[in-house]
Amino acid sequence: MDIIYEIRRRHWVQKQTVSAIARDMGLSRPTVRKHLKTVEEPKYEREQTVSPKLGQFEEQLIKWLVGEAKLPRPRRRTAHRFFEGLQEIGYSGAYDSVQRFIKRWKSGNIGPKLNEAFVPMLFQPGDACQFDWSQEQVELGGIVQTIKVAHFRLAYSRQMFVVAYPRETQEMVLDAHSRAFAFFGGVPARLIYDNLKTVVDTVYAGKERQFNRRFLTLANHYLFEPVACTPASGWEKGQVENQVGNVREWLFTPLARFASFADLNVWLATRCKELAQRTHPVQSQRTIAECFADEYPLLRPVTAHFDGYVEQMMRVSSTCLVRVDRNRYSVLASMAGQAVSVRTTADQIRVVAHGEVIAAHSRVFGRDRLVCDPWHYLPVLEKKPGALRNGAPFVMWDLPIPIQRVRDHILKQPRGDRAFVELLILAGEAGLDALTVACESSLECGVVSASIVMNELRRLIAPHLPAAANNVPDGIALTIEPIADCQRYDYLLGAANVH
User: Fold this and answer.
1) Of 285, 347, 389, 425, which has the fewest CB atoms closer than 10 Å, so is most exposed?
2) pLDDT tens digits, residue range 115-124?
3) CATH class of 128-298
4) Residues with Cβ < 8 Å from 8, sequence gap 6 or more?
């Protein structure tokens, strides 16, 4: 456009001839005459690139694209995979032709509609927090595995919090909220969700929802209002949707490697604080941390911890076990065959009966794992001491070395099973530390038997008698204390020799 302007200015203002303009600007006279008639900005349309080798394969490629448009985005093939598929059926053209065709097709079929519009969102401090899940790849304990990551984002300050779990169950949702509120130091007025099955039981018309009762218990404890988005309207919580992609790039690329979930979550919390030093996307003169400092006083304080368990009734098996999530956990032998309440949290299994916790285990993940507390089976050993040798709880029992050595000696002796069971029953009251000391004493003296270890253990746990006070009445107190005279014993010995 600048050349057109210069030609028209020279001709109409400076009155130069067409030949003079062509000579000075190095242009042809027909070009100068054409531009003298140009008033509007010229528009140049790019000709469609012809791909003759792709032509006969376009129909097959469109069929693939139509079929995969119905699949979730992670399951769709990339342009390069389509290119490889076409090569298998005889395509010999270039990859660029396939890539350009797919781009044109997507923009016209599944791309954003030109008339689709959105409303800019504005949130007040302390008003809203957005929640979502994502799926990531990490290496934990040397094993690459897929995990679930819970994302929280305060809508005003953009302060984020992420925490990782093995799966996306309701107890994980409850635990994630408790961790997030502890990290933020308070609770926002509203939390915005997708229509998660762990949060929403039923979706009605409009914004009406029937929330899960256990989730409502969480909301009632922290006094926040749950808000579910309109189905297929992710823009209503667009901040956290965008955060999912950013966190994947910032924190999980390249592959994160940690020993356990605990180590990973400590690192994620630290990184959330570090990323808060970035510039706020709207208030460009301030950081996210500075905006969060304004929002923090407006969050509702957390007054009490929420016990985020999911409860179900179960019957204890004859082997004193309950099954949770394809794994088995031991219970007191006295509860065999009885109904108990099993409370599952993100990291613990608790068994409750008559309002009291009768068993507690760290939760394990995977399948067909057996978690036993050997003390739960001591009453069974009293009647069945032979189970000591091959019983799973006792075979897996990691006892201190002195106890193991004493056990191996005693089990070789007659009736050794019952003798060692009696030691364990006594140690159930005194504790393994006392039994370990008793076993060490027995090993030091070189004689190992159940009776010696039992005597040592009883001596350790026997209560110390207080020293008796010598309360002597005043009337019988000695005025002159006798002097010790050893010659009296010699006299008695002499008298004895005489007789």
Assistant:
1) 285
2) 567 777 889 9
3) alpha beta
4) 35, 36, 38
